[in-house]
Amino acid sequence: MSRLRGGESVYSFEGSLISRSLPIDPPSFLSVIRSSDTPRTVWSTPEQASETGGTTVVGNGAAAVLRADGSDRFMTIRERATDLFTNSDVDTDAEAARPRLFGGFAFHDDHASRAPWSGFPGAQFVLPRIQITWKDDRAWLTVNTVGESQRGIEEYLTDATQWLSSLSTSGENSDPPGIADRERATDRDDWRAAVEASVEQIRVGALRKVVLAQALRATLADELSVPDTLARLRETYPDCFGFLIDALDGAHFLGATPERLVSLRGRTVETGALAGTTGRGDTPEEDEWLARELLSSEKDNHEHDLVVEAIREQLEPLSTTITTDERRIRRLATVQHLETPLSAELTRDEHILSLVEALHPTPAVGGLPPDRALATIRTTEPFERGWYAAPVGWFDADGNGTFAVALRSAVTARDVVTLFAGVGIVADSDPDREWDEVQLKYRPVLDALE
Ligand SMILES: C=C(O[C@@H]1C=C(C(=O)O)C=C[C@H]1O)C(=O)O
């Protein structure tokens, strides 16, 4: 396996990309990820996703890592990716198995790589050394090299095939680690004051909406298994985007988010608004009652309208048509949301990173007007958002890809897991109800740990 491990050199790649893939018998997800080297990548799309039809990818190690910082991080990543993909030699019979860059961005332009985000730059994308892709009932092995010879890639392929055949075919999930201690970054009084101050800003017309978040530091009782935690999240949230991004220093960012930021295939864009939240009922009747109440809530519909409007405004200059579907309920294991799917046809070819940059942050996680909302978030939140609520996903050589908004997520370092969750504040937000909503949004990750 030593040849499969990425050395320091992968972080400043030179030479051209060679990629080979072949169909394989679907291996066990848990076995693959448990025996993968860092940086590992996990990406799984909702089972029902129309354009991807439920795809899972695990990346073992790195053939190349692209990193960038600052407000031009989107462009820098795109340029470095273009260098990487130029003159590449890719041999695959399946679109799903093509080489892809997986990673994401920090929420703020002036992101600070300090705890709990040390190791996470403003942007990081990994071209996996080995990519295992599952789609429907099929699976593929892809091996990527940069700056190696043709003979080199054949050897990597042989090693990777041997590695796969050595894996156990079943994976039993271990018990969750449990939580020994919890510490909130924001106490209830500070929260109340922050929400009231934002509501006041909205009432005087300085803001229209702002999304305020909280952080929860959980010290684990036992050792964390990242693969097992992800497997639990995938099981409870099959209709979410599951993700894992390894920093290069041993930290991990993982989650299961219901929110798509954007997908691009050719000139077809899929996106959507997700904002406005209520809980789950104890019975189907109670669930229905809560859903109906959410659909008719003036406050939640206003919160949601602002997101739909902002997305349409960003897409309009780029698109020939924009289609806004009917507003509906998105029911998850712990909460229900208002959701409006949107799609568009672009007037010309665009790279998905241009769309990601244009859309991030939508008012579902930032606010309006964007600059004032971001300044309010910066001065109000006593912690670093890091990669929380920011774009995570993948793109390929053609500039196609999918990005989700990294919600219901946590960053882990040794025995501490820091969870994040936020809520949209509008004129009639009540601090105590918003507090409760934050606690509900911690549940996906908390349940996977307890
Ligand atoms: C900010 C979060 O969620 C966002 C805010 C929502 C709301 O305020 O109703 C709903 C879904 C997400 O767009 C989060 O989960 O942390």
From TrEMBL:
Keywords: Isomerase. Gene3D superfamilies: Anthranilate synthase (3.60.120.10). Residues 188-441 form the Chorismate-utilising enzyme C-terminal domain. InterPro entries: ADC_synthase, Chorismate_C, IsoChor_synthase. Residues 167-187 are annotated as: Disordered. It comes from the Archaea. Its EC number is 5.4.4.2. It is an enzyme of class 5 (isomerase). It catalyses: chorismate = isochorismate. GO terms for molecular function: isochorismate synthase activity. Belongs to the isochorismate synthase family. This is isochorismate synthase. The lineage of its organism: Archaea, Methanobacteriati, Methanobacteriota, Stenosarchaea group, Halobacteria.
